Amino acid sequence: MNGSPVRVVVCEDDESVRAGYAAVLDAQPDMVVVGQAGDGVRALRLIGDLRPDVAVVDIHMPRLNGIEVTASLMEPPDPHPVRVLIVTTFNLDEYVYDALRAGASGFLLKDAPIDELIAGVRTVARGEALLAPAVTRRLIGEYALRIRPADPAPAAVPAEPLTGREREVLLLMAEGLSNGEIAERMTVAHETVKTHVSRILAKLGLRDRVQAVVFAYRSGLVRQG
């Protein structure tokens, strides 16, 4: 981002929620809300025209839902893709894996404190995935194991083997830990963890941390329970 504010589009069909999100995010010194959409079709059009850094997308929207919007944004592959932060609730768990496959970078509970929304936007804008332990660890553990055999694997064989340290970092990522939390757990520098994560993604041919965690479950490196 090179010091520029994070450009955000808010996609939410509830006008009061949408306005609230937009007001809070636009008030941050490092963010600017460049557009708002109340349905999926307008969201796609707006995001395509404005090319924000992050789109905050509700799963349930008229005309196109959040999963359909996310999938459309990821095809064809874009060297500078919009990062999608999905807004969901625990009673919509069945949609979360579909959103993972569609290419979402993170998930936020709709009733989460507003500080979590702000932090989530910053996290995905940095190119990291929002893997809050309260949400994603349980969901990925359950839904990553439901992939049909016909589904394409994120990466069947690494381009080169992961080192012991990289495997350790991947396991901690699968627990839902952030880079800072991993650094504290491993007693290493934050930049060292960032380097390990970048190498893991490159070796596995993956886009982001969410795909890496799914890979960890699919490959058997992490087992549910």
UniProtKB/TrEMBL annotation:
SUPFAM superfamilies: C-terminal effector domain of the bipartite response regulators, CheY-like. GO terms for biological process: phosphorelay signal transduction system; regulation of DNA-templated transcription. Coiled coil: none annotated. GO terms for molecular function: DNA binding. Residues 7-125 form the Response regulatory domain. The modification 4-aspartylphosphate is found at D58. It comes from Nocardiopsis flavescens. Residues 155-220 form the HTH luxR-type domain. PANTHER family: TRANSCRIPTIONAL REGULATORY PROTEIN NARL-RELATED, TWO-COMPONENT RESPONSE REGULATOR. Keywords: DNA-binding, Phosphoprotein, Transcription, Transcription regulation. CDD domains: LuxR_C_like, REC_NarL-like. This is DNA-binding response regulator, NarL/FixJ family, contains REC and HTH domains.
